[in-house]
Amino acid sequence: MKARIVIGCFFLLTLIVYRSEAQSACELTLNQAQEEFDAGRFYAVPALLETCLSKNQNRGWEQRAHLLLAETYLLLEDAAKAEASYLKVLQSNPEFVTDETRDPIDLVYLSKKFTATPIFSFSGRLGLNTSFIRVIHNVRPTGEHKASEKYTLKAGWQGGAGVDYHYDENWGAGVELNYAVSSFGFESKGLFDESTLELTDQQTWLSLPVMVKYTRSEGAFRPYAYVGYSFNLLLSVKSNIVVDGDIESPVYNFKENRNKLTQSLLVGGGLKYKWGLRYFFADLRYSLGLRNMADPDNRNFPINDPFPYVDDDFRMDNLFLSVGYIHPFYKARKLKKARTKSVLRKTKGGTNAE
To answer: Tens digit of pLDDT for each residue in 63-75?
Structure first.
């Protein structure tokens, strides 16, 4: 067993050394190709790079090699090969951008014909929430009006995944599938013989938000904002009641007394942090409930129940705080319409200046 481990480590070390030497040799080859290019011997450049390009090189090397080839083919007036080489530049580094102060103007012009911005991206999220109750109409099981009532905040949690479609670098649309556990409290004092009643109500949801988003496209930290509409399916309800602080009820299921399908308006925003070609984010979202949570046609009045609770007519809002990860799916491609107007304007401006 020990001999196998030693042999395995030897072969692994040999492979690492071999790849390191191969990459060093290809680095020298790339430098030689650059020298040939600088000397004006353009036809020698593709032949020099051919062998190394057929091997698996690191992305940085591939980007520089294909960029040199794109410049070479432009000077050789081979438009098809220049475009193919620049497309491979973006495949090696989807976020590569030419610089008009550094790169030849014909290369800058060529770059405006291509993009590698993501068309779709996948995201996952996890976080905490709390619920706000907006009473539409007070409903009491006994008709007693002397009792004081209030709703209190409770903590919940949520997790989910989503897919975004990117119309351009700033605007996009997204859809998510989220699972959430939310909760609220209810306190009543003065019912019957000055009794107190405390309710903890916990719901589980499956929601489908659809949103329109705007994102800042530059910098390591990128703020974004969105509005949307959510379809919500109530999966379960668990309610616990305590009377006078010590008499505790069994767990009630009020699902049959609630509307199963509700809708919400969404508004939110957050901050993305760019990490390589990926993103981490923090998100704050407010969900405004649009439908009565209680089902007025299926309301139970527990007149003789020792735990006399009945739902008010109410809407429920939610505040969500989430953190998550975004995985963009970059796609290097040629644009149907090249973005060359800015280059032409600057070229004309330079000509006029001369």
So the answer is: 999 999 999 999 9
